[in-house]
# Entry
Amino acid sequence: MRVLRKHGLWVVLTMLAGVAAAWLFARSVPVHYTSTAQVDVESHVVPNATLVVPNQATEKIVATSGVVVVDAARALGTDPGPLATHLSAGVSSTSNILSISCSMPTPRAAQRCAAATTTAYIAFRNLASRSKTARAADPLQVTLVTPADLPLTPGGTPRKILYSLGAVLGLLLGVGEIFIRDVIDGRVRDRADLEECLGAPAVAAVPRIWRHRASPALVFRNAPLSRPAEAYRYLRARLGPLLTPVGHPGTVLLVASARPREGRTSVAVNLATALTQGGARVLLVDADLRRPSLSSIFGASETPGLTDLLTEQSALDDVTIPTTVPGLSLVTTGGRAGRPAELFEVTQLARVFADMRVAADAIVIDSAPLLTISDAMTVARISDIVLMVADIRRTRRTSARTAAQEIKTTSHATLLGVINNAPRTLPATPPRTPTPPQTKPHPPATPHPTHLQRRNGLPPGQPDLTRQPQPAYPTHNGDTPTSAGNSG
# Structure
């Protein structure tokens, strides 16, 4: 039933296609009307002669034979050849009744054809053109029982039945195609699929983003009221209980994917932007040394960066690049290394990210694909949380399952899943538990400068627009996102 609900529109379309096919078939079949006359073929009692029992199979052939058709065509003023194709005869196994039928495009033509053919058959079998002596010796006698009727409805299958059959066939084809595709399609289809593959909860589903409306990597900043932006607020709220409070060493959060082009960079950028909306200091680190992308998104230089930190050629303050998003700083990949895999050594990574934990409240890492390059597995070992991004149009279930197993084998990080490019039929967030009304009002704003005002260089009397009424990381019982829709 879940599959049928997901593809309900496709089932409706196949049913409509079946009805349309039935309509076209009905239009392509010529309309014909059939008129039928019935005659009684009996034995003619002839004195001093053996009684002849009529052979109904023979009479059926005689009724549509050439000698009868020629006389009928002469009476109708048409050619015998085309007329013979419209004639048919039928017999009953329990009586001597012979039915002669004629099909024509119009009711009147069908009646005239059946009547003329029946008359010609009676005349031929009763020897109407012979003498009385010859007719008296005829062993068979044919009598008209029912004259040719005037048909009121065309022959063939009624259109209502054709339309019903078309709808049923379309329904069966649609349902069959859905179940076959569901069996052979190996992609991650929804939240339940991803949770089964990861063996871990899927905490958010980001709706599909049309690129002509907003850049997927900057949708939270450029379209804050859109459904994708709300999905990232929900993701931030779900991660809140797992992140350390402000003032403590920051949490390292790795955004990974099994294969390339599954949306991990977009999720990393938007999540980092969403985290800053709560007043947190966030470091966004590009750890994909083979194909870096964060520098082009923010228009920053790649050097110096992460590789310079790993080789101890630069300090953290030298590689940290401020962005246009308040509270968000960027660390690019840095100079291109000859052997990138050798730089990602656990001890060096732990040293570098220990400094980042002191400088920021959250460190969001955009890594290389897990099953393509080994760098991401090393980064996962020093991470606190690993967000596995699965594109609903690209990610295979086998790839997600293998990547999750690799992470669980090599890292103690908390594994969570995120659905990317979710269609509108898949809800971006699960149903929310109603939030009870707050009886305690928010405290009035104070004119004294906050720590963010001091850090951003704002005067004491000017409000800090980057500060939100919620805490940096909402804390609540369980995983119910009670503040997802009000934050950011």
About this structure: Residues 159-184 form the longest helix (26 residues). The chain has 20 helices and twelve strands. The radius of gyration is 42 Å.
